[in-house]
Structure formats: C-alpha cells, structure tokens
Design goal:
Blueprint lengths: L7 H32 L3 H21 L7 H10 L13 H11 L2
C-alpha cells in the first residue's frame, strides 16, 4: 500500500469510476444544454447559458477532486448525486466502500 492509503490497484479502479461518473455528468449537462438552447429566444438567454456553463464548470472542477485525501468524500458525493453506485467501485477495499456508503447517506 502506498503512503496515501490507496494501493495502485485502488487508484486504477478509482480512476475508472471517476471517468464513468464524469461521462454521466457530461451527458446530463449536454441534455440540459440542448434543452436550454432550444428554449433560447433572446440575447439574454445566450448570456444566461454562458453563466450557467461557467458555474457548472466550477462545480464540476470541485466535484471531481482526484487528490488521495479527497477520494472517499468525492465518491460519497458522486454516489449521493446518482452518478455512481457503490457496486461500480469494484477494486476499492471494503473498508473504504463502507465509509463511502455511510457518507453518501447524509
């Protein structure tokens, strides 16, 4: 095990899960954008889209924090938000999965 508490195998599993959740988040964002673009009727709607995207990028940059010290909390948030299921975190040790599950319930 590395000094961070995450084995190389766990880090690889974590990366795969993060990629899956990120793709789901982006797919939902694209669907939202398509709907908002279809509804756009004036210049203010365009600037509103810009503001929405700027805020969403900031939110996603914070949500997908890959620092070892943040992984358990990030996964709990992704599970809570419905972007991942605990079962999709295969390869991560059981103790960490229990923590993720417990945090996701709050």
């Amino acid at each position: 095990m590395s000094h961070s508490g995450w084995t190389p195998e766990e880090k690889e599993a974590a990366q795969k899960a993060v990629e899956l959740a990120y793709q789901r988040e982006v797919a939902a964002l694209i669907a939202t954008l398509q709907n908002r673009v279809e509804q756009a009727a004036c210049p203010n709607d365009v600037w509103s889209l810009h503001d929405f995207l700027s805020a969403k990028r900031h939110e996603m940059d914070g949500k997908f924090d890959l620092r070892d010290s943040s992984l358990i909390f990030m996964f709990a948030t992704l599970v809570k938000d419905g972007l991942l299921h605990v079962g999709e975190l295969e390869g991560i040790e059981k103790e960490k999965l229990v923590k993720i599950s417990a945090l996701a319930r709050f």
